[in-house]
Specification:
Layout: H1 3-10, H2 30-44, H3 51-58, H4 62-69, H5 72-86, H6 90-97, H7 101-115, H8 126-129, H9 137-163, H10 173-192, H11 197-209
Helix pairs in contact: 2-3, 2-5, 6-7, 7-10, 7-11, 9-10, 10-11
């Protein structure tokens, strides 16, 4: 646990030890508070988002935050799950629903251009951005595992097409999958740096041009 989190955690009431003794916390909508935390982590990353930042944007007291979500790391883990369900599932759907790996990747890249530049919320991908300058090993490792799992899923889909004869037998599934992962991660950062949807879609077109044909 990072030192900043330790200091903030130290002032929190122990869970299940009567932390409500000073008065009953006011009620709040948990789903709304979680969404606000998600946006904070998405915008600023894990390390730069403090507990005080979270209580401010979530509009709840520190005791309520710890009672409802646990510590900062536990809250972040729930945020990542929520992000994957609400905002980050387009890639999995594309791979599962399209008839070929190439079609799935094409859809994934095109939808990434849309999702990463959507108005009214932070740009890019939370799972990619939240790891920047992260000094909490457990969080850094968890995010790395998610990114690598995404690449592994792409590789598996490509390998299946090679086995089915839909891609040439010499296709290097692992290399092509990592190339796709690099494109997705690069598009995320480009979006955060101000690239438009159209500019990212143009990158997707170039990325698809290197794909082998069956």
């Amino acid at each position: 646990m990072a030192s900043s989190e330790k200091s903030e955690r130290a002032g929190a009431p122990a869970r299940g030890t009567g932390g409500r003794g000073r008065g009953r916390p006011r009620s709040f909508d948990r789903a709304t508070a979680l969404e606000k935390a998600l946006m904070a982590f998405w915008e600023h990353g894990y390390e730069a988002t403090s507990v005080s930042d979270l209580t401010r944007v979530m509009d709840i007291g520190t005791p309520s935050l710890y009672a409802a979500f646990g510590d900062k790391r536990s809250l972040f883990e729930e945020v990542v799950q929520e992000y994957g369900t609400r905002y980050g599932s387009f890639g999995d759907r594309a791979l599962a629903e399209e008839p070929t790996a190439r079609a799935g990747i094409e859809r994934m890249l095109r939808e990434a251009a849309v999702e990463y530049t959507a108005p009214g919320r932070p740009h890019g991908c939370l799972v990619i951005h939240a790891a920047v300058n992260c000094s909490t090993p457990e969080v850094e490792e968890s995010l790395r595992e998610r990114r690598n799992a995404n690449i592994a899923a792409i590789e598996s889909r490509i390998a299946a097409d090679v086995a089915a004869g839909l891609l040439p037998p010499h296709t290097e599934a692992a290399t092509l999958a990592r190339y796709t992962g690099a494109m997705i991660q690069g598009m995320s950062q480009q979006a955060r740096d101000g690239a438009s949807r159209g500019e990212l879609e143009a990158l997707a077109e170039i990325a698809l041009a290197v794909w082998p044909r069956g």
